[in-house]
Amino acid sequence: MPPKEFQRKSLRRRGHNLKPIVTVGAGGLTDAVLAELESALNHHELIKIKIRIGSRERRDVVLQEILDRSEAAIIQKIGNVALLYRTAKTKETDPP
Fold it and tell me: Regarding beta strands 73-78 and 46-51, do their DSSP bridges make them parallel or antiparallel, or are they unpaired?
């Protein structure tokens, strides 16, 4: 479920001072990048990513693929930096 507008506003405020955790470079969206993205979302929930790919159209395609694969919501996108949010997936533990 995508965040409501008041939640987006709060998340944008929280994400303002964050540094990009994951960078997608010229190599594109690799398994290693996806694994790091998954780990970062589980640990932080709110992350900034940087997509350093030449054209705007290509960046948008890569960002949409990231959103589809990670099930994250985009909170804000400015240039080649995007702020993503996803509630952390908790691992079920075996009862003692």
Answer: unpaired
Six-digit token string for 17: 């001072």
The number of beta carbons lying within 10 Å of the beta carbon of residue 21 is: 18
Does some domain include residue 43? yes
Comparing CA positions, the residue from 43, 54, 41, 46 lying closest to residue 80 is 54
Which of 9-13, 51-55, 73-77 is least confident?
51-55
CATH number, domain with residue 44: 3.30.110.60
Q: Is residue 68's pLDDT more than 90? A: yes
The answer as to whether 10 is a domain residue is yes
- For residue 91, the model assigns a pLDDT of 56
How many residues in the chain?
96
pLDDT for the residue 95: 53
Half-sphere exposure of 23 (CA within 13 A, CB side): 6
Q: In what order do the strands lie in the sheet with 20-24?
A: 20-24, 46-51, 81-85, 73-78
